[in-house]
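Q: A reviewer asked whether we had any structural model of the full assembly, not just the individual parts. We don't, so I'm hoping you can provide one. Inputs are below.
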Amino acid sequence: EVQLLESGGGLVQPGGSLTLSCAASGFTFQTYTMSWVRQAPGKGLEWVSGILGGGGGTTYYAGSVKGRFTISRDNSKNMMYLHMNSLRDEDTAVYYCAKDREPDGMWQFDYWGQGTLVTVSS
Amino acid sequence: DIVMTQSPLSLPVTPGEPASISCRSSQSLLHSNAYNCLDWYLQKPGQSPQLLIYLGSNRASGVPDRFSGSGSGTDFTLKISRVEAEDVGVYYCVQGLQTPITFGLGTRLEIK
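A: Here is a predicted structure for the entire assembly that you could use as a starting point for your response.
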């Protein structure tokens, strides 16, 4: 059974940093593209970042986080991370970890975690 | 970035009646492999999103056949043949043709 479990959310001051983790199980993690998708309170979904599988590890970012957030993965531990720096109020959201449906990375998210809440506030 | 526009934003439906949601993209989503890179998700209240339809018209695993997707290029439609109470939630169309991946604003389906 595929499982994705996010952790690391919490309250952080503007300008601060936080690292989110996603623990994956139930599938061959290293071959799949993975993404972070967020949802601000009462708002819609926003793709944040993605990282290809298959050993390439190419990374992609939304314009709103480029230069501030860094996505990474550790295939030996079946883990994905999102390192968030220079956090702003508008980064407040539930952050979901999502798995691609196929190893070829077509950005179709067939499994999602339960989300972890990040609150940026002074 | 590709802009995704959904309509309507709110959709009240009587159980047993059909429902339809439209999604338009600011540029063609037709990939060189001949697939349309358009997917539909449903986020039920209090839950994580779930994949309903991928590549324009393919139902994801476990999705009831009352859900169907159609369209090509820039215009797409999600149809529910007979709405059930469990279909309540927000429906999103998403383009996967190029990064950044972009979502529509969502259509909130409610039961009359």
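A: Points you may want to mention in the reply: Chain A touches chain B through 22 residues (CB under 8 Å). DSSP finds no helices and eleven strands in chain A.
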